[in-house]
Amino acid sequence: MELQSEESMSTSPTTSGSRSMPKTLPAVYYTDEAHYRRELEHFFFSQWICVGRADQIPAAGNFFRRDVAGESLIVLRDEAGAVRAFYNLCRHRGTRLCEKEAGTFPARRITCPYHAWTYGLNGNLLGAAHMAETPGFSVDDFPLHQVKTDLWDGNIFVNLADEPVRPLAEQLGVLVEKFRPWRMEDLRLGKRVVYPIQANWKLIVQNYSECLHCPMVHPALAKLSHYMSGNNEPAQWNYLGGRMDLNPGVKTMTMSGQSDRALLPELGEDERRHVYYYWVMPNLLLSLHPDYVVTYTIWPKSPRESEVICEFHFHKDEIGKPGFTPEDAFEFWDLTNRQDWHVSELSQLGIGSRGYVPGPYSMREGLLHELDKLMLGALEANARPNQ
Amino acid sequence: MELQSEESMSTSPTTSGSRSMPKTLPAVYYTDEAHYRRELEHFFFSQWICVGRADQIPAAGNFFRRDVAGESLIVLRDEAGAVRAFYNLCRHRGTRLCEKEAGTFPARRITCPYHAWTYGLNGNLLGAAHMAETPGFSVDDFPLHQVKTDLWDGNIFVNLADEPVRPLAEQLGVLVEKFRPWRMEDLRLGKRVVYPIQANWKLIVQNYSECLHCPMVHPALAKLSHYMSGNNEPAQWNYLGGRMDLNPGVKTMTMSGQSDRALLPELGEDERRHVYYYWVMPNLLLSLHPDYVVTYTIWPKSPRESEVICEFHFHKDEIGKPGFTPEDAFEFWDLTNRQDWHVSELSQLGIGSRGYVPGPYSMREGLLHELDKLMLGALEANARPNQ
Amino acid sequence: MELQSEESMSTSPTTSGSRSMPKTLPAVYYTDEAHYRRELEHFFFSQWICVGRADQIPAAGNFFRRDVAGESLIVLRDEAGAVRAFYNLCRHRGTRLCEKEAGTFPARRITCPYHAWTYGLNGNLLGAAHMAETPGFSVDDFPLHQVKTDLWDGNIFVNLADEPVRPLAEQLGVLVEKFRPWRMEDLRLGKRVVYPIQANWKLIVQNYSECLHCPMVHPALAKLSHYMSGNNEPAQWNYLGGRMDLNPGVKTMTMSGQSDRALLPELGEDERRHVYYYWVMPNLLLSLHPDYVVTYTIWPKSPRESEVICEFHFHKDEIGKPGFTPEDAFEFWDLTNRQDWHVSELSQLGIGSRGYVPGPYSMREGLLHELDKLMLGALEANARPNQ
Questions:
Q1: Taking Cα atoms as reference points, which of A288, A256, A296, A255 lies closest to residue A272?
Q2: Which residues of C touch B362 (CB under 8 A)?
Q3: Pairing mode, strands C62-68 and C49-53
Q4: Minimal CA–CA distance to C356: which of C17, C4, C2?
């Protein structure tokens, strides 16, 4: 049986086999190393990628490391208070500069552990022992390789392209206005968990983009929010999402459906009775609750592996209160997330089989089909077929 | 030294270096990923493969999983009592359906753990939530992908080809008649052990096909059966094998050479004094003893790795007796098998060296040369050179 | 950003970006599998490689195994007292002959564990059961595949080329005379340690070839020997190195700078006040101290992985004394080596990033640039561009 190869020959994979019925992508999009590299290059690296939160690095010299598809970046607060990001390697002999996950650079200097080349927080090379003897050498020629950064409401984004195709604000578009009431800049990190997942990054986004699986996979969630209450926005080129109703009597998503936390202060009546689930292209999932926000950043590791950094953010006033705990929110979503990762991993396993052929999306899986088309469109626009 | 590449350029590898002296294959046949894939496609997947025993799934809804070179299959008993096999993935979004090694499907239904698509034991799609809203969707279009199955004397075979080149009975040929006296259908599983082996599958078959190594490798075996007593049949296109004498006073192959078990009831005098060792193309080794049968199914994992599932089968009357134990047979063969796997792994290591060149087969290794020719013939008939 | 690919397109990588300023190599030389294979073939396998010491195999039948870039070799002492090396596999079916790391072949015979083919210590096939029946077979046609060996002052070298481009003595050149005072043949092994290192072999040699990093990386070393006291010889085609002063009052390199051992008997005054650090092409690092010698043999495992076998050798008279211990020397270098391997691993990590571009060598890193040129020269002389 050569089912896969037939399908992968199809010129328009999203409608293969049927004009009217949208179908899942051929296996190659979930398993092939070359395709994966193209996807990283033309879909991931060309966009603004969310790498974390500004409140992780409040003071000059604070930093964290972030691995972006194999690339180690240093994200830091500079002396002027700006957030900057640099490739984590010395301009001398390429040595990785920083091994710690997060911390503070002593004396506001980044010093290479090999030959002590020393950089300022703005990336400028300040000292390079014995290089003065080298004809033609100037410290000005060897600053750290900087990566473009920008901020949205407390979230830090980087762009690895030399010339980003658009500013962050344009990539976000109407989301800036839409999510203003949650005032993410006023939130503080309460809990973090990192999940390794044996599945392609798209399967994680697709799992997030429908609740048709909720009755089967998430019995605890079904008690709080009905899976048919979902109301998706029409798909956009830069985000996909919608909201679901909280059941009557349910205040927020916790195991009990209750919470001692005050609701976020600027939410309207409608926003207090829903949870908003959005994929923000390319790697951010935003779950906006009445009293807290969960962010998931997705980090592709290989065609078949991803990592998700999941963070719970609470209002700075609440997080400072005695007795504050993030555990009720965490307990609920940790259970639910693990259920989601598990079925995503099962999908990865099946899609890798020669018995897999694209299957039909239901009307309630429209966002998944839109994601497929966005990714294919990005490849078409940016890549030649056999590149 | 470029010894290997010279050899692998040779147009007729089985006679390289000498017209008269048959030699082992060039290293590429044991180490190269591309060749390995061709071998799987044209030699393994195009044949009827033994996957287990019918007595593992006696009742409707009973199933076991089997991984066939990376493909997960569900093998089950359907409501009509027939044995069927399916690719282990849902027709919706490709999710792996079944994670358990073996068991019984509740209510005779196979339900996908993701969105609860539900299939009957015949593979028909019975329910698919919310798909009715999708224009043009019909459950009739999305049955599980079935794999052809057939039975021989209690052994289950599958064929992954769309159109098998021949029926199972034709692949087995005279073996059906030859092994009838052992009445394998009346045997029941008494013991199973799974061996991971760091060697190409052909090295396992080759090791099985000669006893020239027995004095060196198997001192315990040498006490029961003389290595020079082996009497091979002329090589056939579909099997290779022969028999060896039990030494005088030896009843069967156990550490003591004795056994409390009754001999299998329909064996003739001659069959009671020999052990029959046969490779049944492509993946079954059959060791037929006077009082029990050992089956080995060989599962290639990579050019350099295989797995062997080794099962001991006893007459249903014996296995039901109080005090029955398979351990005497198991103890002997477990020791002997591990000795065989070890030298096979040493061969794999040496063949992977640039110092390896094909070496001469002795007259007592004729079956090995025949195996090489069978495999090469299958590739020549089915594959274009650079495919 | 496509920084790497631009650089790797450069036709003269060692001077890319600047005529006057030597720079590190593009990343491909440290990360690419195909380049790595070329390097092994044209730089490693074509040279005389140091595999160990003659005093490891003093008597006929003594042997040790050595893995040379995936090739297992047997190095032994034959009946005539000569050192020989063979590929570790049987000429029959390719089976690895010897699994032990070191030992003595019983009865001066090498016997294959599979079918008992038996070889003499000179590699001749002496016995092959049942092969006499095979027409045309002669034991004379199937000796072990021998690898050329030679000795230098107690060090054993092998050459895997069919026709070495030059004798060992010519490869060593003036080193034979230069290091005669240390009388390495009179030294005996006192300590061995094996280090797995996640770095390309060249990074290990480069780290060894400069002490600019010493103040930052090796505070303990800095107390014994000033990093600016280094005095390099002009680079040679076959070795790179120089010497460093022992600080006043320091007798040798140990944690205390002191030692109970007698100095090596034939050293001159100058040699007693320095430590000599030499890379002997392609895989030997020699650290010559007033009272002991450290050898490092470097074993590439992959573009990003190497193994170093580090051995401490002492005068045969000292090592025989009651109370002799190698631990003071070992303790100091084990600490220092681990610091070196760590920064080498950090370099490997950074060089693998898309943010890496070749950086400037200082005047004190001249030997590193010379190593790069030697390697590139060997590839240019031996390999066609796209081979």
A1: A288
A2: 128-131, 133-134
A3: unpaired
A4: C4
Q: Which of A1, A346, A364 sits opposite B130 (nearest CB)?
A: A364
What topology does CATH give the domain B174-380?
Answer: Naphthalene 1,2-dioxygenase Alpha Subunit; Chain A, domain 1 (3.90.380)
- Per the structure block, which two tokens stand in for B123? 């593979």
pLDDT at B383: 56
Do A357 and A4 touch, CB atoms closer than 8 A?
Answer: yes
User: How confident is the model over C161-188, as pLDDT tens digits?
Assistant: 889 999 999 999 999 999 999 999 999 9
Length reported for chain C: 387
CA C228/CA C244 separation, integer angstroms: 8
Architecture of the domain made up of B49-163: 3-layer Sandwich (2.102)
Quick check: A130 and C364 CB within 8 A? Answer: yes
Query: ipTM of this model?
Result: 0.91
* Same fold flag, B49-163 and B174-380: no
Cβ atoms within 10 Å of B385's Cβ, excluding its own: 6
Name the strands in the sheet holding A284-288, side by side, starting at the edge strand that comes first in the sequence.
A187-197, A305-315, A293-302, A284-288, A274-280, A239-245, A231-232
pLDDT 10s digits, C63-96: 999 998 789 999 999 999 999 999 999 999 999 9
Residue B236 has pLDDT above 80, yes or no: yes
Contact of B75 with chain A, judged by CB distance below 8 Å, is answered with: no
pTM (whole model) above 0.80: yes
* CATH code linked to domain A175-380: 3.90.380.10
Is pLDDT at B187 greater than 70 in this prediction? yes
Instruction: Give, rounded to a whole angstrom, the gap between the first and last alpha carbons of chain C.
Output: 28
Closest to C220 measured CA to CA, from C370, C331, C311? C331
Share of chain C above pLDDT 90, in %: 86
Cα separation, B1 vs C163, in Å, equals 9
Q: Which one, of C51, C384, C363, lies nearest residue C212 by Cα?
A: C363
Residue A9 predicted with pLDDT over 80: no
- Interval C249-272 mean pLDDT: 96
- Whether B354 contacts chain C with CB within 8 A: yes
Q: Using CB atoms and an 8 Å cut-off, which of residues 141-160 of chain A contact chain C?
A: 142, 145, 160
Return the H-helix or E-strand segment holding C339: helix C327-351
> C66 with C149: CB under 8 angstroms?
no
pLDDT band at C19 (very low <50, low <70, confident <90, very high): low
Distance CA A193, CA A308 (A): 8
A344 min Cα distance to partner chain B (Å)? 8
In chain B, what are the domain boundaries? 49-163, 174-380
C-alpha C116/C-alpha B359 separation (Å) is: 14
Q: Please classify residue B116 by burial: count the beta carbons closer than 10 Å to its beta carbon, then call 0-12 exposed, 13-18 middle and 19+ buried.
A: middle
